[in-house]
């Protein structure tokens, strides 16, 4: 019942994700990739020159994806596992990696939807193994003074407003 | 359910402003967006109807800066208050770390406040989260108006959890940052 466990990413997971996203970008011909949480927070991105505003993008993509899942439920479909928007110059592909993680891929006319879907599906299988493996016993923990330091930072940020 | 990215040295918390239609949720976010240092906030995203009523949510990311080596962010969301948008409210609540329940202090809005408050707990319980880890503050809003309930009466009606209470007038900004600070400190204490 109690499942407020959060999502914690360690160095090894992030390194493997970054390597994989770069490879996926290369083989699929996509322009921008991002791993985000299902609650709308960015985890990591891969891009050359195209840099959309990642915080808003993650929030909107996660919300759209969540709405899509509810649409599936209303239509008595088990799940819609991807979300696809086709634009004039750019396409957006959002797919589920795990219960807590989504993958965003944007790509233009220079590549094909089928190619992106094929390589994305393969990448998701590897990403799942990264996040669904056994918990790392050496997972770092928060600094013991984080709470009081954050309190001081908040007092500072809000002092003149 | 914060996202802690030790590799990127980032921690992200999700705060949701909840309450009935026209209680001042979006006004809170607009005031924060207007007043806070622009370097400490991102773009205010609103998915609203043509009449500027929230259709899905408003979103505003705030950056606290680097705390003990961790880039610390709060992602602020509102929900659509009108009762028939409950499916959207449930989606916005997914992964929430802290809730600010914005209560409209006007006597005429009693039924809407109670309905929204019960709806919030229905939705939270329906998610199956451990609610002892959730930050929760009740913001008694519109304290600048006449014909309003006393704080004591509102507490009795809307605060079965004996949670912290703040008083505000979101339109003038009174109490807006006080409320935000209370819930931010709570979520860090409970989940950090």
Please summarize what this structure is:
Helices cover 44% and strands 23% of the residues of chain A. Chain A is built from four helices and six strands, in the order βαββαβββαα. Chain A has helices spanning 11-28, 54-74, 113-132, 146-157; strands at residues 7-9, 32-37, 42-47, 82-86, 90-98, 101-108.
What does this molecule look like?
The complex is a heterodimer of chains A (161) and B (192). Helix content of chain A is 44%, strand content 23%. Chain A has 161 residues and is an alpha+beta fold. Chain A has a single domain (11-157), classed as Beta-Lactamase (2-Layer Sandwich). The radius of gyration of chain A is 18 Å and the shape is globular. The relative contact order of chain A is 0.15. The model of chain A has no long low-confidence stretch (mean pLDDT 90). Chain B is α/β, with parallel strands linked by helices and 192 residues long. Chain B has one domain (3-191): 3-Layer(aba) Sandwich (Rossmann fold), CATH 3.40.50. Chain B has helices spanning 25-35, 86-93, 110-127, 151-158, 176-191, and strands at residues 3-5, 10-18, 45-48, 54-67, 70-78, 98-104, 135-141, 165-167. In chain B, strands 1, 2, 3, 4, 5, 6, 7 and 8 form an 8-stranded mixed sheet that branches. At the A-B interface, strand 1, helix 1, helix 2 and helix 4 of A face strand 1, strand 2, strand 4, strand 5 and helix 2 of B.
| Uncertain spans of chain B | none
Distance between the termini of chain A: 40 Å
Number of domains as seen in the coordinates of chain B = 1
Overall form of chain B: globular
The secondary-structure element order of chain A is: EHEEHEEEHH
CATH architecture heading of chain A: 2-Layer Sandwich
């Amino acid at each position: 019942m109690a499942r407020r466990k959060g999502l914690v990413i360690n160095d090894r997971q992030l390194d493997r994700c970054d390597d994989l996203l770069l490879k996926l970008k290369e083989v699929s011909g996509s322009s921008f990739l991002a791993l985000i949480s299902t609650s709308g927070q960015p985890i990591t991105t891969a891009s050359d020159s195209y840099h959309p505003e990642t915080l808003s993008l993650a929030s909107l993509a996660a919300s759209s994806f969540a709405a899509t899942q509810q649409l599936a439920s209303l239509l008595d479909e088990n799940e819609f596992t991807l979300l696809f928007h086709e634009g004039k110059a750019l396409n957006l592909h959002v797919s589920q990696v795990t219960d807590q993680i989504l993958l965003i891929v944007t790509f233009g006319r220079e590549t094909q939807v089928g190619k992106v879907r094929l390589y994305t599906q393969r990448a998701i299988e590897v990403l799942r193994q990264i996040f669904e493996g056994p918990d790392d016993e050496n997972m770092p923990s928060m600094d013991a003074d984080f709470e009081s330091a954050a309190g001081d930072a908040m007092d500072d940020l809000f002092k003149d407003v | 359910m914060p996202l802690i990215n030790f590799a990127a040295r980032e921690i992200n918390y999700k705060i949701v402003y909840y309450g009935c239609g026209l209680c001042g949720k979006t006004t809170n976010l607009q005031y924060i967006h207007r007043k806070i240092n622009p370097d400490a906030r991102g773009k205010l995203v609103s998915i609203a109807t043509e009449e500027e009523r929230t259709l899905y949510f408003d979103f505003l990311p705030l950056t606290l800066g680097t705390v003990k080596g961790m880039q610390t962010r709060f992602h602020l969301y509102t929900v659509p208050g009108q009762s028939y948008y409950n499916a959207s409210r449930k989606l916005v609540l997914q992964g929430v770390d802290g809730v600010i329940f914005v209560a409209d202090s006007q006597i005429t809005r009693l039924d809407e406040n109670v309905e929204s408050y019960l709806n919030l707990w229905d939705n939270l319980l329906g998610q199956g989260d451990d609610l002892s880890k959730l930050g929760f503050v009740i913001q008694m809003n519109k304290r600048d108006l006449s014909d309003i309930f006393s704080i004591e009466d509102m507490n009795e009606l809307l605060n079965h959890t004996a949670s912290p209470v703040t008083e505000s007038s979101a339109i003038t900004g009174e109490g807006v940052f006080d409320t935000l600070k209370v819930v931010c400190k709570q979520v860090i204490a409970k989940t950090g």
